[in-house]
C-alpha cells in the first residue's frame, strides 16, 4: 500500500485504500447534495450506516408522478426528462416535491431496491431492507427552496423503511436559518451575529458513534485525488464528473497497517471550476466537518462533479451542466441506483477507500 503521508509533494494522487470502520460510514449534504446523499444512502444501504440530510427531497420523488401533479410540456430543455407515468409529450414540473410537498404521496414512492435487482459490473453492494441506519434531517424555518412538508416527506419515507425509525431518526426543524448547512459562524435569518449552531457537529454526533471533540483541521492532511481513473474505467466521460476530488485523512488514519479503523464521512458535491486547487475543492462547511475528522480520526471523502457535460448526449441536463449532482434523471433512467453515472462513480471511490 502507498502511504498517504509521502504524497504531499504530488498535486493530485490516486485514491488508495485505508483502514475504514465499516460500522461508521456516513453520507451528508445540503440541497442537491442532500437529495443525492439520500438516494446514495438508499442505493448503498448495505454500506452506508448513517445519513445527514440538510434540506432534501425523498428518494426518486423528483421523477414520480402523484395524483395531484400539474404536468407541463416535455421539451428538449426540460429539467425532468424522465416521467414513466406521464402522457406522451408531458412531464413533471421541476422541483414539484420541493415546491409542492402537499402533492407528494410517500406511499407511492419505491422501497429500497434489493441488491439482486441492481446488476452492476463487479457486483452490487447488497442493499438492506428494512434499513439499519442513523439519520439526521434538517430543515431551517426560513428555507424558501424546500417548503414546509418537503423534508417531512423524507422523514416519512424513512419511517416506512428503517428498522427502528423512532430511535434512529432525528429531525431538526426549529432553527431560524435560510436555506443552508449552518456552522457556528452562520447567522440566523435576517441577522449578522454568528448563531453558534453547529450543524456538522449535530449531524455527526447523531450518526457517528464515539465521535470526539472537534479540533482545528490541519490542511496538511488534505489531499487532492485524481478522479479521471474512475471517469475512464466507468466510461463516464461527458457526464459531469470532475477531474479531481478531495480527501481529508488525519495522520492517525494514514499510517498503513498500523492505523486504527477510522470512520468515513462522504460529502458528494459540485466543485465546478475548482480544478486541482485543494482550497477551492474543500471549503466552507467542509472545514467544519474536517475539524471533527481531525478530533475523531475520521476520513472525509469529497467526490466532485462539475466537470465536462456532453450536452449533445444529454440535452436535458441543465442542472448537471451547472455543476450539480444528478437527482432528476438528467443523465439516465437509473439515476438513483448503483449503476447510474454519478452514483457509480461515488460508489467506486467509497469502495476504493474501504478496500472493497
In short:
The chain is of the alpha/beta class and about 350 residues long. It is about 25% helix and about 15% strand. β1, α1 and β2 (about 50-55) form a beta-alpha-beta unit.
Could you describe the 3D structure shown?
The chain has 356 residues and is an alpha/beta fold. Helices cover 23% and strands 17% of the residues. It is built from ten helices and 13 strands. It has helices at 32-43, 96-99, 150-161, 165-168, 199-207, 228-233, 278-281, 285-296, 318-321, 341-354; strands at 20-30, 50-54, 71-73, 90-92, 134-138, 169-172, 222-226, 239-241, 244-248, 262-266, 269-270, 299-302, 304-309. An eight-stranded mixed sheet has the order 6-5-2-1-10-12-9-7, sandwiched between helices. Helix 1 links the parallel strand 1 (20-30) and strand 2 (50-54). It is globular.
Report the sheet-strand fraction: 15-25%
The secondary-structure element order is EHEEEHEHHEHEHEEEEHHEEHH
For the biggest β-sheet, the strand order reads 6-5-2-1-10-12-9-7
Percentage of residues assigned to helices: 10-25%
End-to-end span in angstroms? 14 Å
Arithmetic mean of pLDDT: 91
What spatial form do the alpha-carbon principal axes imply?
globular
Helical run tally = 10
Write the layout of secondary structure elements.
Elements: E1 20-30, H1 32-43, E2 50-54, E3 71-73, E4 90-92, H2 96-99, E5 134-138, H3 150-161, H4 165-168, E6 169-172, H5 199-207, E7 222-226, H6 228-233, E8 239-241, E9 244-248, E10 262-266, E11 269-270, H7 278-281, H8 285-296, E12 299-302, E13 304-309, H9 318-321, H10 341-354
Parallel strand pairs: 1-2, 1-10, 2-5, 5-6, 10-12, 11-13
Antiparallel strand pairs: 3-4, 7-9, 8-13, 9-12
